[in-house]
Amino acid sequence: MIRSLYFENSVSRETLLKLTKYHEFLIENNKKMSLISKKTEKIAVKRHYEDCAQLIKYIDKTDKTILDVGTGAGLPGIILEIIKNDHDMSFSTHLVDKSPKKGKFLEKANSFLDLDLKIHNCDVNSMNKKDFTTLISRAFKPMRSFLETISNAQLKFKKIIMMKGENFMDEFIEAKKYFEINCDIHQSMTNPGSKLFVIKGVNKL
Ligand SMILES: C[S@@+](CC[C@H](N)C(=O)[O-])C[C@H]1O[C@@H](n2cnc3c(N)ncnc32)[C@H](O)[C@@H]1O
Questions:
Q1: Which numbered atom of ligand 1 lies nearest the CA of 68?
Q2: The whole model's pTM is what?
Q3: What are the beta bridge partners of residue 182?
Q4: Predicted local distance difference test score (pLDDT) of residue 197
């Protein structure tokens, strides 16, 4: 069983078992393909799973669909899907990644973990005009190019939750030259230098 005070205090034993199963599946597959950096395997619980789980705070109980853009190994989407019941949430989790290898991994994870993920193994640019309550992203693209991408794809959404690392302010300043952004910025729980941007409105200038 993975060890995490955060999860032990916030989810059921059954959910902790599923997180453990995901962890073992991820580490096994990480031998054959690059899903997470090998250097972070031993600290994956905090670095990846707790980091992703903190997003649940910014998802509303009424949210119907979330889309994880550039999900890779399913981070943060799979973690949120696994823990959502413990937070009385019932959104449906969509994942998009353009890599065929990652697509196969996600399909296998979906059936191995008995989840109900909606997997889009394609370029997000081709998801033209699709409608989601909330878009989420972690380690995908700089803020400006993320906003350009979803604007070109004409994705419809009510909110975006973006996880940003230490150069968040440079990215924000650059993005604001091209977009009017109405957002709240929250401190990351797992990394003192990182922020979570909750964007409630965005318009191209
Ligand atoms: C650095 S990984 C981040 C993965 C994950 N979100 C995480 O936090 O570990 C970025 C992922 O975005 C995917 N990606 C890049 N451009 C994309 C696009 N235009 N459409 C869909 N997926 C894309 C890549 O295949 C890759 O798996």
A1: 6
A2: 0.98
A3: 201
A4: 98
